[in-house]
Design goal:
The chain has six helices and ten strands, in the order βββαβαββααββββαα. By secondary structure, it is of the alpha/beta class. It has a single domain, classed as 3-Layer(aba) Sandwich (Rossmann fold). The chain has a six-stranded parallel β-sheet. Strands 1-2 form a two-stranded antiparallel ribbon. The protein has a two-stranded antiparallel sheet with strand order 9-10. A hairpin with a 5-residue loop joins strand 9 and strand 10. Helix 1 packs across helix 2, helix 1 packs across helix 6 and helix 2 packs across helix 5. The longest helix is centred in the N-terminal third of the chain and has 18 residues. It starts with a strand and ends in a 24-residue tail after the last helix. The N terminus is likely disordered.
């Protein structure tokens, strides 16, 4: 079940879970954006725009974030203040042509800039650390990248990647199911109120730490599933 927790340096993060291999969903993308909205509201952060990163997955999620947050979307520009920079996966950004340069620009904080990452690797941690993270993964497949399913013969097959325009896929995220999964009945509950209480408690120190990449994988001793 989702669990809000304090990340390194006391940064608020929202984890939907820690996964080995994950087929992501539109529902989970929307749930992450709604928690991002709750985070910004509880922290008293008032962005004026959403900054779109150049990789396709980040652009799709960024357009959806602009709709959810009610903000204009603009291509990322270094030094822009009071903006939310949306990354689907910072390691995917690193593979883009402009990625390494942008990651270097994001290393330094800009007043009012929030870096949000949806899916963050804990076995190959990004070179910079986001201010807000939705889920941790060892391997992730975005909903629009083609996913595995059982074919008519019962054998596994991969669907075709969704080549529709980014705005249409973003609209599908916005129209997804906003309800969260019930969980396994054993993990602690993660109501919105508990999450926003935590954010309110650390709001004065959030967005002050360095964005240096984390070497620690967290409280779980092993960094890979067997």
């Amino acid at each position: 079940m989702p669990a809000g927790r304090g990340g390194a340096r006391g940064w608020p993060r929202r984890q939907c879970g820690r996964y080995a291999w994950l087929q992501d969903s539109y529902d989970q993308c929307l749930q992450g954006l709604l928690r991002l909205k709750s985070l910004l509201d509880a922290a008293g952060v008032r962005p004026r725009s959403v900054s779109l990163l150049p990789d396709r997955s980040s652009r799709i999620l960024g357009l959806a974030a602009a709709d959810v947050l009610g903000l204009p979307a603009e291509p990322f520009a270094p030094g822009r203040e009071d903006t939310v920079v949306i990354a689907y996966d910072l390691n995917e950004l690193a593979a883009a042509d402009e990625g390494p340069e942008i990651l270097g620009q994001l290393q330094e904080r800009v007043p009012g800039q929030v870096l949000h990452e949806h899916a963050s690797s804990w076995t190959d941690t990004p070179v910079i650390t986001a201010d807000s993270v939705v889920l941790l993964h060892q391997a992730v497949v975005a909903p629009w990248d083609g996913q595995l399913r059982a074919g008519a013969d019962g054998e596994a097959e991969r669907t075709e990647a969704d080549e529709r325009p980014e705005a249409l896929i973003a609209a599908e995220i916005v129209g997804a199911d906003p309800s969260t999964a019930e969980g396994d009945g054993e993990s602690p509950a993660d109501p919105d109120g508990r999450f926003t209480e935590f954010v309110a408690a650390v709001r004065d120190t959030w967005l002050q730490g360095e964005r240096t990449g984390l070497k620690s994988t967290g409280p779980v001793p092993s960094n890979k599933f067997a």
